[in-house]
What we know:
This protein is α+β, with helices and mostly antiparallel strands. 25% of the residues lie in helices and 24% in strands. It is built from six helices and 13 strands.
Amino acid sequence: xxxxxxxxxxxxxNRGFAIIPGIFGEGExxxxxxxxxxxxxxxxxxxxxxxxxxxxxxRLAHHPRLVEIARSVLGAGALPFGATLFDKSPTSNWLxxxxxxxxxxxxxxxxxxxxxxWSVKEGVIYAHAPASALNQVLALRIHLDDSxxxxxxxxxxxxxxxxxxxxxxxxxxxAGKLSPLECPVPKGxxxxxxxxxxxxxxxxxxxxxxxxxxx
Length: 215
């Protein structure tokens, strides 16, 4: 389903992200939506953390098409380790300021140089990770609805993933200097991105939902 699979690692390396439409068909997305609607998910205002523990999400995370994308960028050992469902709608709406994703979930707390500060979210230990660890991670954002200019799509600052873990001041400076790119993705499409890519999203201006499963 991918137009140019061989160019995906290049796009990720150069820009920090790639949009891959048509990974899942309408029927597959409908089946997943129904499974999520029926699963006993602990919902917060923004969606569902730690969603990988739910069988329909775990099945999707190990789907051959997604595993192929991850392994083309990260190598043959790539495995999913976490998932979050973001559910943006008129009744649950938010904006996200410019930031990279720097916290990783860990099995136990172990004081290690370059890791921290530490936190616990819904019983899971997290630590802010060094660039060396974050460079081994790829996020795959599966779109359960069309992501459009109206419903608060992801915006990115291309190529910022190569600058390591940035301070808040450095992020503000880059956001003032670089041209952001809006990332509309059709339903069933995937946005693949490096966690260190600086990104943001606006509030939705639309009546529809914008559900994204971030693996």
